[in-house]
Amino acid sequence: MEVCYQLPVLPLDRPVPKHVLSRRGAISFSSSSSLFGAPDPRQLSQRRGAISYDSSDQTALYIRMLGACVVFKQLFARDVRVRSQVGFEPERRSSHPYLCIDFRTLHTRLSCGSSPADSGTEKRVHRLLSFQRYLHSSRLLRGIPQQIPLHILDEDYSGQARCMLEKVGNWNFDIFLFDKLTNGNSLITLTLHLLNQYGLVDLFQLDMVKLWRFLVLVQEDYHNDNPYHNSVHAADVTQAMYCYLQEPMLSKSLTSYDILLGLLAAATHDLDHPGVNQPFLIKTDHYLATLYRNTSVLENHHWKSAVGLLRETGLFSHLPPEDSMNMERELGSLILATDISRQNDYLSRFRTHLDQESLCLTNASHRHFVLQMALKCADICNPCRPWELSKQWSEKVTEEFFEQGDIEKKHKLQVSPLCDRETNTVGNIQIGFMTYVAEPLFGEWARFSDTRLSQTMLGHMGLNKASWGGLQPEQTAVSEETEPSAAGADAGGSRSKEIPQGSRES
Prior knowledge:
21 helices
């Protein structure tokens, strides 16, 4: 009896290995033969020990090996039905790769015995896998005993990564180092660890295979070619959210349901971010702007993308339908709160609650509002990190702004505020952002939760602002050397005083 498994695979734009030959739109090889050829698609389901790419089905790579059918399916066609006027098209998937595999069955089948002849097959398979899955797949192919621990990823943790996870609640947690130690899997590793630490997997009876599949798809749907809005940013926000959930005001009031929603919202809050802000999408008539009527365009897209993955993986399919729908709706409410253009609305409401001392955390709606404010803080907490971390994030977000400005210049569009690399510097952008956005928000958060963490965040922000101010003369000198125009210098000075809506799209 053949068992069919599905695993995700990276886009097929990598160099083709020598053992794979292309012929008439098909790629194939046989592990039992040195002859290569394109199989008849009608015969594909009867082939064993072969890897074939059927030219009639441009979305699937079929692999049959070791007595099992392993299907790698990668839907990589871009949605070209609607394009912007300038041809800007963010990478999207009309559907997502799949990861649906019974590890116990595969371990059992592979541990029945392997011969030296199988080693060649293993090497061929490894070349078709992305590096981030290599360690896990190699253990499967070597036939590790079939007992699967609750923490599937534990086998792949290095000692240093495990050591870092023991201090995941520290505000100086270095997410960049953690991402390197986990081979680029910081979001998967961190989120799964936190869910297990809170006991949410057992409490909500989450299927580990579905959960693993969901987290893999979430991480893959972040565009890691974005300098800032990528999976590392999502992991950083998730870690910050965990720090806030540990604060006394929240830890003694939030329910397990609230914590699950908060962690999932943090992990998915920028899902499938295209690397440009909302004003850019609107002025280029992007289809997302049309779809969401120019209102919280990116946030609506992040929310709907997250719901799509929840439904595709069936992570909450065991719950009553009304509970699942409520969870999706409240997840959207949290993600939509990260819209920076609505910052003043949330801040005003939060300030009113604090002035009137009307927050009652035994009230579900009040707890949800506090979660919204916590996620907003986690999303823009970079200025509150230690200088070594804050500086890296500042440079990354500014580079993303500048890349958008380069696109606008290329297509003769008006360059968005803060996006012109010739008239702006990292320092003036960050000082403006701290002054008009971060300081008011974190000042109110410190009123709500007056703890050592809140004071630490405000202290770091003050030091970071002073550090950028000290670097300003140096950056200005470099800017004037590159562009000695007095008009350019004036433009840079005026830009530093304005923080337009959407300047920091989350």
